[in-house]
Hints:
The structure is a single chain. Helices cover 23% and strands 29% of the residues. It is α+β, with helices and mostly antiparallel strands. Helix 1 (49-66) packs across helix 2. The protein is globular and about 45 Å long.
Amino acid sequence: xxxxxxxxxxxxxxxxxxxxxxxxxxxxxxxxxxxxxxxxxxxxxxxxxxxxxxxxxxxxxxxxxxxxxxxxxxxxxxxxxxxxxxxxxxxxxxxxxxxxxxxxxxxxxxxxxxxxxxxxxxxxxxx
Length: 127
């Protein structure tokens, strides 16, 4: 696949497994899941859900920017929450980072996430 490019930035956490931060094919970028790791320390930023959600969106934004885009270019966003009671809180935090038209979105309850994170997000961006 000659039009495939790996996207990487040190402004988002380094991959902690056998995956890339994002892959670009033509004008579509597939973003890997981001958990609330501080990119420098590689530690979870807080045990507070809102702070974790903000860090996740900051990490996603950094990967979007490394792809010559922004969060506004996300067309699909998948959220994974360890507790669906955070649903309204994630909507509030998302409003700090996104404007209408919002991306299509799924919010899925999961049993656990890497490193004890409360939230993970991944998506698809078109530039």
